[in-house]
Specification:
single chain, alpha+beta, Butyryl-CoA Dehydrogenase, subunit A, domain 2, Butyryl-CoA Dehydrogenase, subunit A, domain 3, 3 domains, two-stranded antiparallel sheet, 18 helices, 12 strands, globular, binds flavin-adenine dinucleotide, fatty acid binding, membrane
């Protein structure tokens, strides 16, 4: 039985539908073609960006020249005698200091000189020397300058001519990446001598990973200050001599140091990279230091052991002052690591321009860089690198201003955390992609993609572990220290697909966190997603270059490595 058809009803059979469906499919395909974003190509601007090393600013030329002159570009793998390599590397750092090319005094008088030098250090591959450099200037000397009195600063400046090395004894085995927020090492005021006694109370309190700790004569030591009344005042920094220069004691040959009484120096297990950098373990068994060892710009202890805090306005805890010490180091490490990635991208691009692929019967084979997959990788990673470098430069200039005016803003604090985890991890991703792309070439020493490039992994962990940086960004939002919408993010950012994607992911993450309540704080992946999405918004807000380059950033950063589901 077939029901009667209503007036005007059209009888549709599958063959009648075919033209409609075909037309619909054509319209959809045309729309997709019109809306498609062309794959990235290495055009003239991109090639110039990849190939050209930025000019070194006038104020940094002397220190960059000194690092080049005293640096060692030979392969890490060749340094079989590790002790000799460490001593050689340490003496290179002493030579850089002695050269006076960057006076320690500049940390107070011209903070921009150190910060602006960092993007240019990655052009040579002496990661050990570069780590010594940032530890010496940022962490060690930077702490004395930032937290020390004028007299302590002057005393520090006097050590430079002799090439004395210092280390930053902050991290402890137990507290690990949370060192600073917590500390087990103690510095107890001793009423009989009027000084402090520094003690490692348990194995977990042993200082760990201390760069240059095996060869340094002095250290800045993080310890819990116990005043004359036995009150624990929390983490403070002490500047102390830990060794006297003495030839041939610590290491079997060459220039070693002799630890002073109360200090035991060991070494972390053999590393896979950065072998000419010594990473020490330090134990203190009743190390006696004078009262003046306490870096006393913001807290003092008088002859009777009475404690007085003089925190800067707006700062409630000594921990915050201490952690602010790590800010410059974070920017330096990030820009340095991005510089390393840029240099490796440039070298690899040059190789791909020379490598002729199988020509078969043709007179000439294609150059490797002419393959679309290769070209696209360089275009995307080069352009995304440009966005990272421009963001890092904007944060760095903010930091320079803050140091000059002695007024740190939350926006700068956040920028330093973001630039640290974003820049260093992007460099690791870039290096890993280059290793994949270049195939067997990556195994050759001349590619520089071997052990020396692992410096990027080290910078992910050092001076504020990347995971902790991400958690800090989110916890500052939760605690109301940072605004919900990051500063400088405008409607223009949201006009880009990458901006919309990041904004949606950010809003979605915040919504999920709100619904989860307190449980959200234990959801590490959710917190990481929020931190990355917010970071992407900040990077896009800082970009002033070609808009098309944002597509590359979206492809290699916003969708990867933390895929965003919008
Ligand atoms: C080359 C190099 C040089 C260094 N130089 C110095 C120096 O000169 N002075 C100094 O004081 N320190 C230095 N460090 C130490 C560095 O700053 C880190 O503190 C150290 O690497 C922490 O290592 P760990 O194995 O104890 O980390 P762990 O505490 O064991 O953490 C390992 C990982 O666990 C995860 N994790 C840990 N805790 C948490 C948490 N609460 N929430 C979420 N995830 C978490 C993170 O992913 C982290 O990366 C250096 C490190 C390196 C690699």
């Amino acid at each position: 039985y077939a029901p009667p058809r209503a007036m005007g009803e059209i009888e549709l059979c599958s063959c009648c539908l075919t033209p409609y469906l075909t037309a619909l499919a054509c319209v959809a395909l045309a729309a997709l073609w019109l809306l498609r974003r062309a794959p990235a190509k290495v055009d003239a601007a991109t090639a110039e960006y990849i190939e050209r090393a930025a000019d070194v600013p006038q104020e940094c030329q002397a220190i960059i020249a000194a690092l080049k002159e005293h640096g060692d570009d030979s392969d890490e793998e060749k340094k079989l005698d590790e002790a000799a390599a460490v001593l050689d590397s340490a003496s290179r750092m002493r030579a850089v200091l002695r050269s006076g090319s960057l006076p320690l005094r500049a940390l107070a008088d011209d903070p921009g000189a150190l910060l602006r030098a960092s993007p240019h250090m990655g052009h040579s591959r002496d990661g050990a020397l570069h780590t010594r450099f940032t530890v010496s200037y940022n962490l060690y000397a930077g702490s004395v300058v930032g937290l020390g009195t004028d007299e302590q600063r002057e005393a520090l400046y006097e050590t430079q001519a002799a090439g004395e090395l210092g280390c930053f004894a902050f991290t402890e085995r137990g507290t690990g990446v949370l060192s600073g927020a917590a500390v087990e090492t103690t510095a107890t005021f001793d009423g009989t001598t009027g000084g402090f006694v520094i003690q490692t109370p348990a194995d977990s309190a042993q200082k760990n990973w201390i760069s240059q700790g095996c060869v340094a004569e002095r250290a800045v030591i993080l310890a819990d200050l116990i005043d004359g009344e036995g009150v624990r005042r929390g983490p403070h920094l002490f500047w102390a001599r830990i060794a006297a220069p003495a030839k041939g004691t610590m290491f079997k040959s060459g220039e070693g140091v002799e630890p002073v009484a109360g200090v035991t120096v060991g070494s972390v297990p053999r590393k896979t990279a950065l072998r000419s950098l010594d990473n020490a373990t330090l134990r203190f068994d009743g190390l006696r230091v004078e009262r003046e060892a306490l870096l006393a710009r913001f807290a003092t202890v008088d002859e009777c052991g009475a404690y007085k805090s003089m925190l800067p306005p707006g700062c409630k805890r000594m921990e915050d002052v201490l952690l602010s010490r790590l800010l410059t180091g974070r920017v330096v490490l990030s820009e340095y690591t991005l510089g390393v990635a840029h240099n490796l991208l440039r070298r690899s691009w040059a190789y791909c321009g020379e490598r002729e692929l199988w020509r078969g019967s043709k007179p000439r084979g294609k150059k490797m860089r002419e393959m679309s997959n290769v070209e696209r990788t360089f275009a995307d990673y080069g352009r995304a690198l440009a966005l990272h470098e421009s963001f890092a430069a904007s944060v760095r200039e903010d930091v320079v201003k803050c140091i000059e005016t002695e007024a740190f803003t939350q926006c700068t604090f956040e920028g330093c955390c973001v630039v640290k985890f974003l820049g260093t991890s992007y460099a690791v991703d870039t290096i890993s992609v280059l290793r994949k792309l270049l195939g067997s070439q990556a195994l050759f020493e001349e590619s520089w993609l071997g052990a020396s490039s692992f410096v990027a992994n080290a910078t992910c962990a050092a001076e504020g572990d990347n995971t902790i940086m991400q958690l800090k960004v989110v916890s500052d939002i939760v605690k109301g220290r940072a605004p919900l919408v990051p500063a400088k993010v405008s409607a223009a950012v949201l006009a880009t697909p990458a901006g919309r994607r990041a904004a949606l992911a950010y809003a979605y993450g915040l919504l999920r966190a709100t619904l989860k309540g307190k449980a959200a704080i234990k959801d590490g992946q959710l917190l990481t997603d929020i931190a990355y999405a917010r970071a992407h918004l900040m990077v896009l807000a800082a970009w002033r270059g070609p808009r098309g380059w944002i597509d590359s950033y979206e492809r290699v950063c916003v969708r990867f490595p933390t895929p965003i589901c919008f």
